Amino acid sequence: MNTYLVIDASFAFRLMLPSPHQKPCQTLVTQWYKEGYVLCAPTLWLYEITSALCKGVYFGQITRYEGQQALILAQRLGVQLFSPDDAQTTLAFDWTMQLKRSAAYDSFYLALAKTLHSELWTADKRLVNAAGVSWIHLIDT
To answer: Please, which contacts does 47-55 make with residues 24 or more away whose CB atoms are closer than 8 Å?
Structure first.
């Protein structure tokens, strides 16, 4: 049986892109792998990462090379992607209503973590504060 940790796109960006946050995130992920955890995310994770990297290149925040390297790193992380089923979609809808939001993206991460009885790691402080549950962790480095 796998022990999962859900990571969202905001955590992945801290891990992949050069910044003062990158090394602490890399250390954490290395520790997780040593402890036997499996990183996972809903399938939208890869869409969000690809889209944000393209946007970063388009607006000159990162170079095309940096974007490509970050995408390669994301693909090599071995994050297990889960496609939402009917139960996941319903749970994401419920989370979205509970959070009083108009978009359900974050809610799919919450739904997956809840379903897998796992922790969710994010760099999104607003999400942590809005959800108000103990199994969501903020990477605040």
So the answer is: 48/9, 48/105, 49/9, 49/12, 49/13, 49/16, 49/74, 52/9, 52/13
